[in-house]
Amino acid sequence: MPISNGSIILAADVNGIWQTALATLRARTTANNPNKQFTETFSINGIVASTPEYLRTIVYVPRTDVILRSARVYIVSTNGGVLQNGISATVTIPAQLIEDNSIVGGNIPRTLTATATSNASANLGSSAARLDLPNDQLFTFLAGDNIDIVVSTADTANVNKVIVSLTLESVLTG
Fold this sequence. Notes:
CATH class: Mainly Beta
Order of helices and strands: HEEEEEEEEEE
């Protein structure tokens, strides 16, 4: 509908324009993605091989359904205040399956693991391991479920600080 002086604009004309514009805005593109990413970060200090599992388990309880995009684990290892090389830490997000292959709990179809190794020459002595999930393997942490994130190390002699960072997405509605 071209507009010129003296034209009459009908409600149907404006409604059509708005519907087209809204459809364009709602279309999922790289510039306009309804899934907005954010991070959740957790830290455990002083972990060694003998640390009981309950002290090295993080429990994440999402308030809304969120999609897990990636997980990162960092380790900083020190002995007497001196940064240490080659100390590894593993983060595990266990699968929540029962024997008959039914998914229970947080909807996690397979166990996810990532291992980082300390590096004294890196910034703050940390190195990172990143676990990225391909688009065809994404899954959702369900709102209100307890998601266990277990951190472990075989190291017995050093003070180890492990940081776990999850990249998540949630769908904005409204």
